[in-house]
Amino acid sequence: MNTGLFVAFATPQALDSALRSLRAARVGTIETFTPTPVETGTSIVPVLVLVGGVLGAIAGFLLQSYADMSAYPLDIGGRPFFSWPAFVPIAFENGVLAAILTGFFGYFVATRLPRLYQPVDEYETMRRAMRDLWCVAIRTDEPERARQVLDAHAPARIEELPA
After folding, report:
1. Helix/strand/coil percentages in the chain, nearest 5
2. Is 137 helix (H, G, I), strand (E, B) or coil?
3. Angle 57-105-120 from CA coordinates, rounded to 5°
4. Are 132 and 25 in contact (CB under 8 A)?
5. Please, which residues have CB within 8 angstroms of residue 127's CB and are 6 or more apart in sequence?
6. Containing domain of residue 49, as a range?
7. Domains: count for the chain
8. Are 134 and 154 in contact (CB under 8 A)?
9. 86 in a domain, yes or no?
10. Distance set, CA 131 to CA 28, 76, 123 (Å)
11. Residue 138 host element (H or E)
């Protein structure tokens, strides 16, 4: 991918129809920059939170079981060494902690944040993208073909991405 286009649209509907056309034409890599979410898709974060929470609860339970049964067994009032009801609240709290931490860091991984700088930040159009324009960056070897696809959707502004 040598070059591309940075295109702005005045409405989210115009961007949505242009995205459908661009994907159908398979012109290159597409990335959107908008003030509101345009594309809603499935996320891996809820699954990561569930797995992190379950693994955290299991790890907390196993740690308490090991400590009470093997590492430091205590005979207190004839209580059995494997007194699992006492382990449940702490295992639950460990599961919640693991789920929260997994969700926090999983969000950053899923959204590829923090990205402190991208080359598109240099464009004049990008300065308005977070306020009132819906933008798309197209990385392609065929900018003329991408421009032909976009002409049907009347973009507000088109800028060339450098090589």
Report:
1. 55, 15, 35
2. strand
3. 165
4. no
5. none
6. 45-110
7. 1
8. no
9. yes
10. 26, 65, 15
11. strand 134-140
Predicted pLDDT at 39: 66
Question: How far apart are the C-alpha atoms of 42 and 86, rounded to whole Å?
Answer: 38
**Bridge partners, residue 157, by sequence:** 8
Rounded distance between C-alpha atoms, residue 31 and residue 70, angstroms: 54
93 within some domain: yes
Contact 102, 53 (CB under 8 A): yes
- Dist. CA 97–CA 105, nearest whole Å: 12
In a domain, 146, yes or no: no
In a domain, 163, yes or no: no
When pLDDT is cut at 50, 70 and 90, the band that residue 163 belongs to is low
Which tokens is 158 given? 């088109």
Token pair recorded at residue 4: 């591309």
Report CA-CA distances (Å) from 82 to 4, 77, 93, 117, 133: 64, 14, 19, 54, 62
Nearest to 128 by CA among 33, 61, 64, 39: 33
For 42-77, write each residue's pLDDT tens digit: 889 999 999 999 999 999 999 999 999 999 988 888
